[in-house]
Amino acid sequence: MSSQRTLPPSAAILAFGGAILAALPAAAADKPVAIVGAVVFDATGAAPYRGTVVIRDGRIAAAGPSVKAPRGAVVIDAKGKALLPGFFDVHTHWTPGGTPRISPEIANAYIAAGVTTVNDFHQQPESFEPRRRWIASMASPHVNFVARMSTPGGHGADWADRATTKWVNSPQGARMEVKALVPYKPDFIKAFADGWRYGASADNTSMDEGTLSALVDEAHRNNLKVLTHTVTVDRGAIAGRAKVDVIAHSLQDREIDQPTIDAIKAGGTAYAPTLAVYDPAKDGTMSAEARRRSEVKFGYALHNVKALHDAGVTIALGTDAGMPGTPHGLSTLREMELLVRAGLTPSQALIAGTASSAKVLGELADRGTIEAGKRADIVLIAGEPWKTIGDVRKTDRVFVDGVQVHGPGTKLPAANAAKSMPVIQAKGAMIDDFEADRSNYDTLRMDDMDGGIDRTVQVAQVINRTAADHALSIAARMSAKDNANAGVVIPLSRGSVEPVDVRAFKGVRFEIRGDGDAYDLGVNTLNGRWEAQVGSAAEWKTVEVPFAALTRGAGGGAGAGPWTGDDVLEVTIDGGRPAGAKMWVEIDNVSFF
């Protein structure tokens, strides 16, 4: 498998560039740009030099100490500043639980920090296509969408369903699920291979070496690199033997030993330690004992990244941004400071955050250094970060694909201030009649079980209701916990990304029969969850729930205010039962009325 992949300009990139260029004066939109007089840290390993970088058609046309600004170019006087490649973050989660919460705000945070390429580990594959369209409409870093794989009940598989994170526990299963992901065109795959919960609970869910090796091999056969959630030394050795491309966390249960270093090196495995997410200094609310444990693990993390770096393992930059206390954008800069604290020089930390990260993702032929022909993703800084790493925080201007997206005079597209993708109209009254593999809105139904390591087991399948009609059948055995539940989620747009306007309708109608206990109709919106309780019987009955009868559900998220009907994402039907109990329900003809 090639260590690099050449990325031609995509439709998404062209759309993004067009959105920015539309905000520029016509005379400037087609002119080359010359950044003159900066000290250039090109991340090739060469010493910084004072020179000029010329940008044309989104690429670096020329760079060097003797390069002159071409006639007619837009000249940026950068005397007293440093010019670097845009930074990478190979481990982020664009989650509504992070800081910031909304995708345009997350994009703004990254470009303001000079971060021009990120991996998003948080999304279900169904959302990749609409999210790529959304990202293309705004000024944003390049976003690689990463498909998720774990073990049943494993880390990362303790929320959502198998459509969000594939569950595998055998080599055959791993190969099957990698193949199932390929049509979604993921940029990479993340395997949650380590079940150690940072010493807080038992490891019951680690991925065995045979399964991980088969997953990596099948991914490589499909030209996909694999990053892993690996946090223990023993599992680090397994990742190396499985030829994982990048360990995307710190090994932090003990100091790394030489056999593990040798296995990681032999596997060609890189290391992105995400020190920012583990930094004890970020949490002032920990108890004394929790802080002590955190500092011990963090000490191992600092030691192990330096040991791996000194052994010749490639160090990349990732943060786990989006997790608590790990804000997008600023955490990437903090990670470089922590790499220096671990013992890397400022120059080595900068290269980890640029060229090395590009290399491990297979993107170095396209970006990651300041060289002629590379994508013009660059950041201008008021300082000398190769001497003082904290200067990475002094961002002056940022360019993505040669277009200025941050700094003096920048005008961003309206999409960068939006709270969501544009609202679309409901496609029709029928949401799902269960006569096809997908809903009538062309969306993938999802199982809706409680979360955690021990999860409710449910089987949802389309069955014959009559010789010519079908319905959805759900049979479940509840997990051993309070508030166990099972059900179905029917998105109204692919990946539940585009909000849908249902104001032409008055409510939701569906047919149901079941074990006689209560069920919940839920409607998930950008403004939180709304729900109503409904009953069932052994025979089919039709239920109508007006929108006016919905009340805000428990755990309704950040929503506030009244029902509007113009921001609907999903319709759900769920049932809760006591721990260990069984449930069955059949559903048909879910529609608006």
Task: Indicate the low-confidence ranges by residue numbers.
Answer: 1-15, 21-27
Helix content: 10-25%
**Over the alpha carbons, how many angstroms does the gyration radius reach?**
25 Å
- Portion of residues in beta strands equals 25-35%
The description of the largest β-sheet is: 8 strands, mixed
Helical stretch tally: 12
Number of strands: 30
**How would you state the average pLDDT, rounded?**
93
Category by helix and strand content:
alpha/beta
- Tell me, briefly, the overall form: globular
> What separation lies between the terminal Cα atoms?
54 Å
What oligomeric state is this? Answer: single chain
List the helices and strands and how they pair.
Layout: H1 11-21, H2 26-29, E1 33-40, E2 49-56, E3 59-64, E4 74-77, E5 82-85, E6 87-92, H3 103-112, E7 115-120, H4 128-136, E8 142-150, E9 165-167, H5 171-181, E10 188-192, H6 209-221, E11 225-229, H7 233-241, E12 246-247, H8 258-266, E13 270-271, H9 275-278, H10 288-310, H11 330-342, H12 346-360, E14 378-381, E15 395-400, E16 403-406, E17 424-425, E18 430-432, E19 446-447, E20 457-466, E21 469-477, E22 484-491, E23 500-501, E24 507-514, E25 519-525, E26 528-534, E27 541-546, E28 551-552, E29 568-577, E30 582-592
Parallel strand pairs: 1-4, 1-5, 6-7, 7-8, 8-9, 8-10, 10-11, 11-12, 12-13, 17-23
Antiparallel strand pairs: 1-2, 2-3, 5-14, 14-15, 15-16, 18-30, 19-22, 20-21, 21-30, 22-29, 24-27, 24-30, 25-26, 25-29, 26-28
Helix pairs in contact: 1-4, 5-6, 7-8, 10-11, 11-12
